[in-house]
Design goal:
The chain is of the alpha+beta class. The chain has one domain (6-103). Helix content is 44%, strand content 15%. The protein is built from three helices and four strands. Bound molecules: zinc ion (ZN).
């Protein structure tokens, strides 16, 4: 696998481990933070940084719920377009993995 360095958006240092990684959004960009830097950023500068954590347990839970809801709304005539929202959530989750998480242990 190619060696890609994941850089923390706040301190600009390398993120070495997956359990020290937080992926969140700034508007529609996904950015990576150290766990500690993300906590600081939320305290100091939360205007631009979303509260949504895309990776880790909460991100996986959100993706699973989106998947289930997506399948359920597909069964309801007239609401099928709402399944697209689930696809967006799942797409963002997959993108976070492709962009950041797969390079870390
Ligand atoms: Zn950092």
């Amino acid at each position: 696998m190619e060696d890609v360095t994941i850089i923390c958006e706040k301190c600009k240092r390398k993120i070495a481990r997956k359990n020290d990684l937080i992926v969140t959004n700034i508007f529609y960009y996904l950015v990576a933070y150290h766990t500690e830097c993300f906590a600081k950023e939320q305290r100091d500068f939360s205007l631009f940084v979303g509260d949504l954590v895309i990776n880790g347990f909460s991100g996986n839970l959100l993706a699973v719920m989106a998947g289930i809801l997506g399948i359920l709304v597909l069964l309801i005539p007239g609401y099928r377009l709402l399944a697209l929202l689930s696809l967006i959530v799942l797409g963002v989750r997959a993108y976070s993995w492709l962009r950041f998480e797969r390079y870390l242990k």
